[in-house]
Structure formats: structure tokens, C-alpha cells
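User: Sequence in, structure out. Go.
Assistant: Echoing your sequence, followed by the C-alpha cells.
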Amino acid sequence: MTAPRLLIVQHADDCPPGWYDEWLRAGGLELDVVRGHRGEHIPTDLGGYDGLVVLGGEMGAYDDADHPWLTATKALIATTIRAGQCFLGICLGHQLAAVALGGEVVQNPRGHATGLTPVRLTPAGRDDLLLGPTRPDALTIQWNNDVVSRLPPGAIELATSPDGAVQAARFARRAWGVQFHPEASPEIFDGWTVAKESPERADGIDVQEVAAAIAVAEPALRGDWAPLARRFAELARAHIPVL
């Protein structure tokens, strides 16, 4: 019997599936990664796949002119969600889904997200099949300039960042987006920051300090976010309607 298969769209070498490669495979899924930034073909629909995950990246949700695979990715996301198939967007993937379905993304007027961030579920989030079991104020990694400023029609806010920005949303019965990075290890975060950023940012964020805190938090991050990956794998395998 063929194992269920998940398609993952990656946008940058330093934004890989990370822990999700381990956790989704442990959840019984086979994974195929399409690297849009390397010119690999983005399909028009999922075909024989059982779900779609779209990862993060430094580019913006509207930067199609410089990153042309984003256009095909947004079309694939919209087709997947409208077909009732399982979807998870992470950071940029969350923003692409919002735009693809008629929402809006802007640069966060409150500034750059700074690393370890508590996840604050809304009442709808606490009842959500995917996000609901998350421990209150569980910490995760955020490192983003842009945020979803307007959710698309029918989407439901599931969590908010401390600054009030949308942190997680359900776009349809089997489709979610999270602004945070449940897949990112401390090593991946270091690749975004200490490996290439000046120690003294203009906005005052101390990347060395933030990276050190994330390294200390690794056991808690793995403990809090592996279950979310397992739940998503169960939903992708089961083809059950999610209310």
C-alpha cells in the first residue's frame, strides 16, 4: 500500500522543511520538496498528493516580479484550498495563502518580529482541531517584517501575536496558516541571523541574544510543535472534514 504523500514548496535554501522533515515522515507521510527558487516546476494542482505545505522565505507575498514562482505557488494554494485539500502555510506560506484568497499583507507597522514569541490562541483557536491542543503561551520562533493585515473572506483568526497581528488562521475546513516557524531549529534560525546579520541592527534587536535564547528553548520548541506536525499528518492521511 502506498503511503500518503505531501508536497512541500520551498522558497530559499536557508528555509528548508527543518524539523518537519522528521516529524511529518514520523507521522506516516512521504514528502516531495519542490524548490521554486531553483526553478523547479510548481504544479497547477496537487494531483495525487494528500496535502500541501508552503514554507517561508525572505521575499514578500507580492514580490512575483523578482521571484516568479510565487505566482504559480499562490495559484496552487488557492486551487488546493478550494478543492478542500489539506494545507499548511508557514510564515511566507501563510501570507501567500492570505493574498491568494483575497486578503492583504503589509509591512508590520509595529516593527520586526524578534524571535521567541508566545502563541496566543483566540477562542476559535482554542476550539480548532489543529491549533487547539497547543499549550497556552507556548513559545515559537517568529522572524518577519510582514504580517497579514486583512484575512480573506471566510477565514478565521486562531491566534494573535503580542502586538495584535494575525499569528494563525484557518482559511477553510482543512487549511491553515501560521505566521510563526514551528519547523525551524536553532541552527536554521542562526542561518537567517547570526550568519549574515550585523550584530547591531538599526531596530535594536540583538540577534546574538535572540539566537542564544532560541538555542536554550530547543527542547521546549520540539516538545510543543512536534504534536502539531503529527496532527497535520493525521488530517492529511484521513481526508476527514474539519469543522
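User: And one key feature?
Assistant: The radius of gyration is 17 Å.
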